[in-house]
Design brief:
The chain is built from 13 helices and six strands. By secondary structure, it is α+β, with helices and mostly antiparallel strands. The protein has three domains: 80 residues, no CATH class; 149 residues, no CATH class; 101 residues, Aspartate Aminotransferase, domain 1 (Alpha-Beta Complex), CATH 3.90.1150.10. Helix 1 runs parallel beside helix 3, helix 1 crosses helix 4 and helix 7 runs parallel beside helix 9.
Amino acid sequence: MTDPTDGSTPLDEVARRANVPSEFVRRLASLGALSEDPLIAVERELGRVRLLHAWSQAGFPPETIMRLVDQEALSITFLDAPAVRTTGRLDRRYEDIASERGVPEPLVERVHESIGFEAPDPRDRAGDDDLALLDVMELFRGVGVPDAAVLRLFAVYADAAHRLAKAEAELYEANIEERLRASGMTERELIEFGTELGNRITAALERALVGVYRRHRVHAWIEHSVNHVEAALDAEGIESRWERHLAMRDVTVTWVDGMREDGVDISVLAPEGHRSPTVTCITLPETTTGPDVVAAMRDRGWVIGGGYGRLKETSIRIGHMGDHTVDVLRELLEDLGEVLR
């Protein structure tokens, strides 16, 4: 973990991985804010170190926090709650990763600024999450997407994430914390309760968030793909679509004739010369009914129409319009033949 030949100590390793000054970590150790075993501090308490450092920069020095802990006004376990836990640091600096990936250092700074955080020093150790951001940037750059467009996407992510996190905090405060405070809970008890609840609910919230995002992403991509389908159909031309509908009608009529030759008593209801290019009504043998055939085809994954009115029991309808193809129609007719035999 550390190299004794360069004079570093386990606490220096904590500082390096937490990306805070070594002097600050030694200060925390002297206050009893860290485990006596530095290995535990490295593996489990980096989030605690970063949180105490952030509070210190906001005007709440660690001496004040630990005094409140000693007075049992705050709980030290709050410092390790999942909600405030952050990802680990890598062994590489931002400037090294930028160089390896061919990403200009100023762009690394702009990535952080786009998600609402201060630009890092190029000599700082990069965080685990930074690689995910740089992966996205690298992928989009590879297909010619302007950096500014990707940064706008990151800004949208950050805005949505900020509002989500704020909504979670407001829900907890308004619906849980206020009620518990009114019941007489102390601040320490409130913090311990919130920490325990956070341990149980954080993972579930993150799974729910990812699940909701995936659903919306699928919906967005489906909407986008529809545009491509519409463009392809426009390129096909309306006359070509009409010709395809006629071809499918002819395939259906030929299939009916073939089934009759095989001894299956079916026929096309409309006489020749009056047959629709978009739908064919087929009369059925007396041994089966329209609803039974429709249900059997549904079991095989197909949707066909039943007859209307007095023809409901004795006929079915095969649609061959819109975006259906001859090949798909042949597959349907093959299954239909098995149902009718």
